[in-house]
Design goal:
Elements (H helix, E strand, L loop, with lengths): L6 H20 L5 H19 L5 E7 L5 H9 L17 E5 L8 H6 L22 E5 L6 E5 L6 E2 L2 E2 L2 H10 L2 E7 L6 H13 L4 E8 L5 H16 L3 H4 E8 L2 H4 L7 E3 L7 H7 L2 H52 L6 H13 L3 H9 L5 H12 L4 H7 L2 H24 L2 E6 L4 H17 L2 E4 L5 E6 L5 H8 L3 H10 L1 H5 L3 H16 L6 H16 L4 E5 L8 E4 L9 E5 L9 H68 L3
Parallel strand pairs: 1-4, 1-7, 2-3, 7-8, 8-9
Antiparallel strand pairs: 2-4, 5-6, 9-10, 11-13, 12-13, 14-16, 15-16
Bound molecules: guanosine-5'-triphosphate and magnesium ion.
């Protein structure tokens, strides 16, 4: 069994066609018109032809009044097609198939498909004299494996052009085998043969029978000589391979008078009559080479589409990664002034509230405040005075204004990035996110137009153009009422800056955890209580977010693993490490503060990220993720089908 005609091949081609169309849609591929044309060709030309019952299509073609219709009628043994002395009688194709196919569904449809129409039956011969879609005739004498096509000429002119070229072109396009009829007047007409040659070799080379309508006075040698010229004009030096037979048709007046059918006589090496030769052609054998070449072309194109789709998908992934990176940095900017002191103060309150009663009593009598306080007072000097003085310098409304400015600035920045034709990123060279993106930008530069530069400050500047699949989501974002969005975000900033029940619960949990780690009369425990009074001021605004471990940095290093999908996001909370604190004390302070800072920052960063996604990036990210997901599925389907296709080509010749 020829694997080309295997059901699995039809399935694979069908899947390939559907997946390519989906990808063109999903990824808004620039070659979408090409995908459409290819898909149409695969559906109309390839798939029906791979079905076992599909007949061989033999198209009779030639110049005006060459005798095409007379030959057609002769082969059918019935005068169906109109004939006459005036050139250009037939204005549309006539398709004749075996009457058996009346009951085979899909055959007539597939035969008409190259013409882009549904099958219509021929009712009267004069229908063929007006331009229109092809007509269909069922003929009992035709074998089921053969469809005969009578075609309009391609050389009668009207208004400086050829009146039937397009129709003739479609007919030739639909043909598996050609019967070219010519006369002494036009056998060497290069315009005609060039036209056919172009059609015949466009997708897979098709073979021909040559019928020479010549005067009886012509010798067979002359017939063969002229037919040889036609063959060479059609196929060049491969004519011997592609010309299946040469016939002569006599110029008999009884034929012209319609009293006799045409007499078609084999010439030279050709031995079999034309109808017999046509019937003997095994459709699969004849079509195998053609179908294999159509199949090969289709696979090669699909391979190109697959590559284009993969590159496009990679571009989309890169853009989304760029957008997420931009969003991360904007979220961090938005948190520039959010006060952490309130959080530490609250932690401290919870701590004190949960003190056992004897400790509360000791605190009232002042017996707890010893060494740690002296230590912490020194620390307070480092941050510029007592904790209260520091807080007084930053009245609440000033903090609120700073918070507002940060949020608006960061939100504007992110929105601009999200609606711009390209994302512009400035990243520190050591940043692992920068390194990853940089590599991808370099790899995809040719396909995406993304660029990479190093700025004069030594930063990595990346430009990533938006992916066309996100154009609609971007338009939607542009048309949003941005002022209203900003107002809404500002209205909610209170909630962002203050404690929520979720954070409160987290702080209570942390207090419990810390307590569990200490024995009742632990010195550390007392130190903690005292420290808690002073930390709020130091921790107010003094933290920095880092991607990558801030090695050797002074202060408390807090790892915020998993936030934004980054495993290496750190917050560095500046603590007066240089203020004479002993290493052991700093360690204690770190043990206390790190979890609080972590809880707080995680909470805030997540909240702002959510807010930005709701107002700015959400639709782009979501649409992008869905598209990536769907594209991955279709790309997989294409790759699998192509694998099958490759195996078919390896196992056939
Ligand atoms: N004497 C003679 N006349 C023929 C022969 N074959 C065709 N004719 C005549 O040539 C004229 C054109 O024949 P058609 O069969 O209509 O030619 P066609 O190629 O179909 O022409 P269009 O459809 O107009 O392009 C008619 O008058 C035919 O009778 C033949 O073998 N001998
Ligand atoms: Mg005709």
């Amino acid at each position: 069994m020829d694997p080309l005609y295997d059901d699995r091949t039809i399935d694979a081609v069908t899947r390939l066609k559907d997946a390519a169309a989906s990808l063109a849609d999903l990824l808004v591929l620039p070659s979408r018109p090409a995908v459409d044309a290819w898909q149409k060709a695969v559906a109309g030309r390839l798939i029906p032809r791979l079905r076992p019952e599909f007949p061989l299509v033999a198209a009779i073609c030639g110049g005006g009044s060459a005798g095409k219709s007379t030959l057609f009628n002769t082969l059918l043994d019935r005068a169906i097609s109109p004939t006459g002395g005036r050139a250009g009688i037939n204005r549309r194709p006539l398709i004749a198939i075996s009457a058996q196919h009346r009951s085979t569904p899909g055959i007539a449809e597939a035969l008409c498909d190259p013409f882009g129409c549904d099958p219509q039956p021929l009712e009267a011969a004069d229908q063929l004299a007006v331009p229109g879609d092809p007509l269909l005739h069922y003929e009992a004498t035709l074998p089921p494996g053969l469809a005969l096509l009578d075609t309009p000429d391609f050389d009668t002119g009207a208004g400086g052009g050829y009146q039937n070229r397009e129709m003739a072109e479609q007919s030739l396009d639909a043909a598996d085998v050609l019967i070219y009829i010519f006369t002494n007047a036009n056998y060497n007409n290069r315009d005609n043969t060039d036209f056919i040659a172009r059609m015949l070799t466009a997708v897979g080379t098709r073979n021909s029978f040559l019928v020479y309508r010549a005067y009886p006075a012509f010798s067979d040698g002359e017939i063969l000589d002229h037919a040889g010229t036609v063959g060479r004009n059609l196929y060049g030096d491969r004519a011997g391979q592609h010309v299946l037979g040469v016939y002569r048709a006599g110029e008999d007046n009884r034929v012209a008078a319609g009293e006799q059918p045409m007499r078609i006589v084999p010439v030279g090496d050709t031995r079999t009559g034309l109808m017999a030769a046509l019937s003997q052609l095994d459709p699969r054998q004849v079509k195998h080479a053609l179908h294999r070449s159509i199949f090969e072309d289709a696979m090669a194109q699909a391979e190109d589409f697959l590559q284009e789709s993969s590159a496009s998908k990679a571009h989309l992934a890169l853009y989304l990664e760029g957008l997420r990176t931009a969003q991360r940095s904007c979220v961090q900017d938005a948190l520039g002034h959010l006060p952490m002191d309130a959080v530490v103060r609250r932690f401290s309150e919870i701590w004190r509230d949960t003190d056992p009663s004897h400790v509360k009593l000791m605190r009232q009598t002042g017996r707890v405040v010893e060494t740690p306080v002296r230590l912490l007072l020194r620390a307070a000097k480092w941050i510029g005075g007592s904790s209260d003085a520091k807080r007084d310098k930053r009245p609440d409304n000033e903090v609120a204004a700073a918070m507002e400015a940060d949020l608006v600035h960061a939100a504007n920045q992110l929105r601009k990035t999200a609606v711009d034709p390209a994302i512009g990123l400035h990243l520190a060279p050591g940043d692992p996110a920068a390194d990853g993106l940089r590599k991808t930008v370099r790899r995809l530069a040719a396909d995406t137009g993304a660029t990479e530069q190093t700025t004069s400050e030594g930063q990595v500047a990346l430009q990533i153009p938006v992916h066309p699949a996100l154009a609609a989501a971007q338009d939607k974002l542009r048309s949003r009422d941005w002022r209203a969005d900003v107002d809404d975000m500002l209205a909610r900033r209170e909630a962002l800056g203050s404690l929520t029940s979720q954070l409160e619960a987290e702080l209570r949990r942390l207090v419990g955890e810390q307590r569990a780690r200490m024995t009742t009369f632990d010195q550390i425990r007392q130190t903690f209580a005292a420290m808690l009074n002073i930390i709020p001021a130091t921790a107010a605004v003094t933290y920095v977010l880092h991607t990558g471990d801030p090695v050797g940095a002074a202060g408390i290093k807090v790892k915020l693993a998993g936030l934004f999908g980054l495993n290496d996001l750190y917050a560095l909370v500046a603590i007066p490490a240089t203020a004479g604190m002993k290493k052991a004390d700093l360690k204690q302070l770190e043990a206390l503060l790190a979890p609080v800072a972590r809880a707080w920052l995680t909470h805030k960063l997540t909240a702002i990220e959510r807010l930005f996604e709701e107002k700015i990036t959400g639709q782009l990210l979501e649409r992008g993720a869905q598209t990536l997901d769907a594209a991955a599925g279709q790309i997989h389907a294409m790759a699998q089908s192509l694998d099958h296709g490759r195996r078919v080509l390896e196992n056939t010749t």
